[in-house]
Structures are given as structure tokens and as C-alpha cells.
Amino acid sequence: MAWKWSDKDKERHADEWTGFLDRGVRLEGTLELAGTFRLDAQVKGNIISQHSLILGEGARVEGQIEGNHVVVSGRFDGVIFAKGRVEIQAKGVVTGEIHAPCLVIEPGGIFDGRCHMLASSEATRPVTIPIRAVNHG
To answer: 137 with 120: CB under 8 angstroms?
Structure first.
């Protein structure tokens, strides 16, 4: 797939793919993203996403994520602040905290930490649910 960058790219729709970091890439620092972005890389630091962030199976992320829709298929250790939905897919592992109005954990997904379910209105206090992974072995 060829990448074509122009002034029109600045007018992207939020649901369009804006890029990816593949396996073999290591990044330390702050990553700010617009549109849908996929990570299969190793990242240590802060990720700020305006739309959808997908941590693929190869992703190893440590730090903090601020986003709208976050999908985890790899490993994440830290704190997620999501305005929308957080999904932990079958091979995903999240250790830390999740602050979101919606959390979905698929069978096989692992979450070890605290979940703060945010209410739709700010007048209501969030509900905190401690969750620990159980070893079935």
C-alpha cells in the first residue's frame, strides 16, 4: 500500500486509518494520534488518541492512554482513560487501571487491576470495581 500525503490528508474523517507502528519498532515518549491508529510496536510513555487506538497482538505498551475507543489484543500495563469503549480481546492482557463508561472483555482476555466505570453524566459518581485475574491451570 502506498502512502500519499497531501493537504487533503489534514481533512481526514475521524474513522479513517491514519497510520500504524509495526513489530520491531520501539518508541519512548508521547504519541499523539488523530483518526484510527494501530500499534504492534513496543511503546513506553503516553498515548493520546482522538479516535480509535488498536493495540495489536504484537503490542507491548507501558504508560498511559487517553482515548475514545481503545482495543487491546496485545499487552498493556498502566492506566487507560477512555471517553468511549475499552475492549480487551481474546489474547489481550491489561494490568493497571481502566477509566471508561464501557468495558468489554472477550473470553480469553485478561484484566488485572481496577476498573472505574464512568457514568454518562458527570453528576453521578463513578463505580469502582476491583478485578483480579484467576489462574485456571
So the answer is: no
Rounded Cα–Cα distance for residues 69 and 52 (Å):
5
Whole-angstrom CA distances from 88 to 1, 39, 47, 120 are 28, 15, 17, 21
Where in the chain does DSSP place strands (E)?
Answer: 17-21, 26-33, 36-39, 42-49, 52-55, 60-67, 69-72, 75-82, 85-88, 93-100, 102-105, 110-117, 127-131
Pick from 93, 99, 133, 94: which is nearest to 115 by CA?
A: 99
> What is the per-residue pLDDT across 32-86, written as a single tens digit (0 to 9) for each?
998 899 999 999 999 999 899 999 999 999 999 999 999 999 999 999 999 999 9
How would you classify the pairing of strands 102-105 and 85-88? parallel
pTM of the model: 0.77
Cα 38 to Cα 45: distance, rounded to the nearest angstrom: 16
**Which residue stretches of the chain are H helix?**
none
